[in-house]
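thread: overnight batch results

M.L. [08:02]
morning all. the overnight job finished for the chain we discussed friday. pasting input first so we're all looking at the same thing
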Amino acid sequence: MKIRLLAATIVIVCLVFGVYTLRQFGDGISDDVFSDAVLTVGFTGKDVVELQGRLRYLGYYDGEITGTFDQKTKNAVTWFQWKFGLKVDGIVGPKTKLKLWEATKNWRPTEADKPKTGGGGGAATGGGGSANLAKTHNLSENDIRLMANAVYGEARGEPYEGQVAVAAVILNRVKSPNFPDTVSGVIFQPGAFTAVADGQIWLTPNETARKAVIDAANGWDPTGGCLYYFNPETATSKWIWTRPQVKRIGKHIFCM
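M.L. [08:03]
and the structure it wrote out:
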């Protein structure tokens, strides 16, 4: 009788533990992993600390753990999304969180995963407005004007998102070690932009082009970190077709 009672007790304990485990992990992410916030550039907090830690665990992020969702973090996110077949937009929503959690189940935060500078406490919060423009990107008024010229020369007639995307590509190149580190250097790099080659860079831009530059400088990157774009109807370079394509906006295809 005692043996049967003991056996029944063991079975009940196992069932309870099994149900608890399924509730914790069966839906993908347990209650203590991430919050419900959708993370994007400008957010800070413990969710971003965890995001950077998990991305670094996989080798997509090689920066310091700061708890601030900056452009370097976004580039790591877009790389992860592309590799795992997700929508490449640099935004960390439910699908990206779930895929990241599944890929890093063995990750545990260590001393190296503690934020080095600010942003470590509290829930994720939004941030970043026009006041952060010069501080974040070090753009001068001349840079903004030149970028507006480039956007107008390259993408006038494109949807507004496509104009912001062209401006974002310029900024992504400035940040990339493979391109000049100034706006003028990127725009006037030989062979880089058709508008420079055919002189349309010197057309007077409209206010929409300038606004697109400001939006890109404030963190909106519709391309998810792309460094190239081309018009498939007019492109003559075979090399550009070898680049990983991320998305199409208007007539342009944006790629890594």
